[in-house]
Structure formats: C-alpha cells, structure tokens
Hints:
The structure is a homodimer. Chain A is α+β, with helices and mostly antiparallel strands.
Amino acid sequence: MHKPKVDVNRVFQALGDPTRRTIVEKLSQRPHSVSGLAAPLGITLTAVTQHLQVLEESGLVRTVKTGRVRTCSLDTPGLSALEHWIRDRRSTWERRLDRLGDFLAESGGDA
Amino acid sequence: MHKPKVDVNRVFQALGDPTRRTIVEKLSQRPHSVSGLAAPLGITLTAVTQHLQVLEESGLVRTVKTGRVRTCSLDTPGLSALEHWIRDRRSTWERRLDRLGDFLAESGGDA
C-alpha cells in the first residue's frame, strides 16, 4: 500500500515521448489491454510493454493481470506530481510579479 | 500581439530535458541573463541559447534584449497548455470512474 513518491523528473521524461503521451490519452478514455494499445499505434507488443513499464514507474499507468490478459489503466500519482510542479512554478513566479508591482507602485513607476 | 497557439507536444518535448526543466525552475524564481543561466549550469552560452530557443518556441520562456544583455523570464502560455492537457486527462478519467461507479451500484456490485 506504501507507494514510493513519484519523481516528477521521471514523469516529464515519460511524457516527453509522443507514443507514451498517446498511450496516456487513450487510457484516460478507458482501460485497454496491451494488444489493444499496440494495434492502433502500429507498434509491437514488446515496444508497447516497454513504454508501459516507463509509464508505470512514473506513476501514470497501472496494469492488472487477469488470467492471460494484462489490463492497463490510468493512474493518478504521476498526473498529480506534474500538477504540483506546474503550480509551484506559477506561484513562485506570480509572487515575484506581485512584489515587482508593489515596488513599481512605491517608486511611482520610474524605476 | 497575436501569439500562435502553443502546441502541448512541444511543451512536453521541451520539458522532457532536465537542463531545460532546471532553466524553467530558475526563471520561476527571477529573470536571468543568458550568461547568468549558463554559469551555474556549467554549460556554454551556445548550449543555453539553444535550450532557450526551444523554451521560447514552446511558450515557456520569453527573452528581451536591452543593449547587449538578453534577459530571460518565465512565460505563461506553455504552463497553461500543460495544465489544460492534465486537466483534460483527469476529467475524462474521472467521468469514466463515475459512470463505472453508477454501473456497479445498479448491478449490485456483481458485474
């Protein structure tokens, strides 16, 4: 139950690849089997399995094996890590713009 | 004034690189000159300029040249494109989970 903390660097690396982004987009619609992912992407089962492993390790996808079928679905820790990273960048930046605004107001805009 | 729409694929590709993520993190603290970015990263001016070009093209960074100094700062269209992409994935997925919940409730959880 204790999932390791997701490394946002891994998430960015995972989603830097267009095939992996397409997999995440497909899985946000509904879960897919590995072969169901591979066929429309026109890639081999081996290739899709490698991409899935990267996505699993970055907390974006989870897979469950039932009998002989492995079903893949979207997982949320990866998306959450990404959201936090963006929010941190934005908030630091916006705080800075606020301070700059205060400074310009105090100095009459001539600074 | 009419900025071209940011392509989220470009944003992911830009941020898939750890050096470019570090540049964005630094710029969210405060604007930097090109040489001010290059020195702590231990990379050449040419290398940092190439990274900045990728970041500018994906709406994450903007640069302003004043005299001989080029100042780089964070730009928001790239971060916004990224946020939208994540929100779209999440909302599609959460709607699906809601429908699944309804289905399981209706079928008494035996499905």
